[in-house]
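Ex. 9. Protein: Aminotransferase class I/II-fold pyridoxal phosphate-dependent enzyme.
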Amino acid sequence: METSQRIARSQPLATTAMHGRVDAMKARGEEVIDFSIAISHFQAPESVLQAVRDGLKQPSLPYTTVGGDAGIRARLAAKVSSENGIAASASEIIVTNGAKQALYQALYVMADPGDAVIIFKPHWPAYVTTCKLLGLEPVLVDLPATVSAEFLDSLPPAKILIVNNPHNPTGGVLRADEIERIAAWLKRTGTRAIVDESYEKLIFEGVHTSLAARPDWQQIGIVSIYSASQSYAMMGWRAGFAVAPSNIVTAMETLQGPITAAAPMLIQLALASAFESGEPMAMLHEYRQRRDMVLDMVHGLPWMTMRCPASGPYLWGDVSALTMDTKQFAEELLNQYAVALMPGDALGAPGFIRIGYISDDIATLRRGVEAIIRYGNARYRAR
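Predicted structure tokens for Aminotransferase class I/II-fold pyridoxal phosphate-dependent enzyme:
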């Protein structure tokens, strides 16, 4: 049976495709170390687990309105008001089945086919893939070390700017002055913004500032996306939400209604409890130790440079001294050493590799990094 032309023109998301390959290998009984995505070895916070237990004791878990239960939306509005400085009401919150759904729906209702969307690279692959699915035109621009007014003024006209802060994969965190410049540019050009703040809780150095933390965020047209997946070790829960002007939320509900309707009430309870559970300090402490261990292991390699990320569950390595074809790097590493990682080509940056360092135990992390080093050293000597 033939498929539609539009899906025939589409490609699977690179990150999920690699993870799917790893799962298939494991299902066949093969031992694989998976650094291709970040899956925390931590459990969700106890308050989240308790919220689920309590939810299961309720007489029923009903359908809610598409955008989410009114009480849950109010709790999430209180979260972004107190923690992010975003003055939002419950009507400006929509609960979604993870951040990807929020991204898809925001792009769908904010732009029409053919509209340009600026995406900084390296980038999370879903930004580009989602734009292409919707017939939008992704415009890839190298993310500079500092977002200056001159850089912003050099950007081409676009309907939407996607901002990822904290940034996947580099781990960069935008400074408050950079956020102000972006807001001024948005106002000056009339460009709207989608801001992915999924890693807001995973910051080692610096301070996270929300672009929408300003009184005129609705007039500028800013949609902010949040996820419990990484911040609270809830990858499989598919729990996320977006903050947007009320007319955008209404439009996103119109789209979400016939697709998934509301997120499950049990997940909504878990989501609100996660964001009320405080800072994940124990998790951050261990992540920092893991990050520093890997940085120590790769320090001084002649073929890789890896900077210390200020945030996030990933390490971003420059292997351009060895190869610009990181797809081949990733394939050979998987085939020869049973270690999976994400090639930079998939994130718009050939010559780089992304390592998710938060899965499994420390011994497995060390063993996987040692395999990467052995593989790279062998290729470097054979040049």
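Check your answer against this statement. Residues 16 and 98 are 14 Å apart (CA to CA).
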